[in-house]
Structures are given as structure tokens and as C-alpha cells.
Amino acid sequence: MSRTVLIFGATSRIAECVARRFAEQKARLILVGRSDEKMAAMRQDLTMRGAIQVTSHCVDLSATDAIQEFFSHNGEFAATVDTVLVAHGTLPDQQDIQNSWTLIRESYEVNLMSSICIATEVTKWFEEQGRGTLAVITSVAGDRARKSNYIYGAAKGGLSLYLQGLRNRFGSTPIRIIDIRPGFVDTPMTAHLEKGPLFAAPQHVAD
Question: What is the DSSP letter of 157?
Fold first, then answer.
């Protein structure tokens, strides 16, 4: 039976590489992101790579209201989606936002609250199915606060703790909660950073 995979933040570099792996496994793919143009190109590419079906939905993943609207309009996914990847986020400049509560709140909306919103809705589906896999990309930045990125790190740390709670909640069931914590990855999100030997290729992270 083919796997049905729902990917949030589908146009991010890591998510795109993951989608290609699933396409090669003949999966059905549902892409969610902010760019219709990019997802249209992905649909063609993933179909050529072997995906049985590829559909896409344009959603502003920085707004929990938009995410909840997506779930309310796509209830049919509850019985078919068995794997969900949450791969969206932003890496704000610490100096630019650290003295602005408005910018900090916006950062937490996209890096913490939106992912929790998605996880809350998805695990309802999985409880009804009695199975499912939720994988969320967090960050090693959430393991320890550093002065260079503690606002971003606090969001990712909070998300990891939330996922830990979910994992304990569903520990005796076939529902799997996976916290993926890559270090530095060479993607557009880190394009402004000087590259070093610790940077991983997105293709390797996808594997």
C-alpha cells in the first residue's frame, strides 16, 4: 500500500529533498507552502520521479488562523494521511529582533506556535486511525541558549519539549513522534552564514 505524505513547508530545501525520496518510493504527496509557483514546479518534478499523485495547497504557515482554516477545509485527509513532515521556519537575526516584542512574537508564531498548531490537528487524525508518523524539524539551537540566537533557540527548544510530551503521550501506541534536530545545513535559510566543515548537505539530511 502506498504511503500518503503531507509536507508543511514543502518548498524549503530539506523538505524538497525529502519529498523526492518519498516520490522514488511511489508515495502520494500533499504539499503545503506559500509559493504556488514553486509547488507547481515541484509537482512536475515529483511526478517524474515516481510519485503516484502530487497535490499542493497554498497556506501562510506563519499564521495559525490560516493553518486551522486549512485543516477545517481538508478533513478528508484524516483517513488517508499516514505520514506528516513539518519543515517550515525562519532564522531571524538576533540583533534585529531582540529589542522588539512585536518581532519576537512574529518569530515565535512561525517557529513555535504554527508547528504546535499543526501537531495538535495531525495527532487528532492519528488517534482516529490508531497509527501515524509525525516528524518535525526542530534544531540543535534549542538544546542550549546562545547569545547569538537565543530567541530562535527558545522557540525550537519549546517545540522539542512539546514533541517530547507527545511522544510520551503516544508511547504505547503505533503513533510515532520524531524530533529531527539537524545542525547547520547548507540551505537558503543559512545563506548569510559563513560555511564551515560542520555544514551538512540537505540531501544527506533528507536521507
Answer: H
Q: Which amino acid is at 136?
A: V
Between CA 158 and CA 143 the distance in angstroms is 10
The rounded distance, in Å, linking the Cα atoms of 121 and 98 is 31
What distance, in Å, lies between the first and last C-alpha atoms of the chain? 21
Nearest to 112 by CA among 76, 168, 61, 74: 61
* pLDDT score of 183 more than 70: no
**What dihedral angle (degrees, nearest 10) is formed by the CA atoms of 195, 142, 118, 184?**
10
CA distances from 206 to 19, 29, 52, 61, 128 (A): 9, 15, 20, 21, 28
Residue with cell 503505533: 174
- Rounded Cα gap, residues 29 and 128, in angstroms: 21
Tens of pLDDT, residue by residue over 131-163, are 999 999 998 877 788 888 899 999 999 999 999
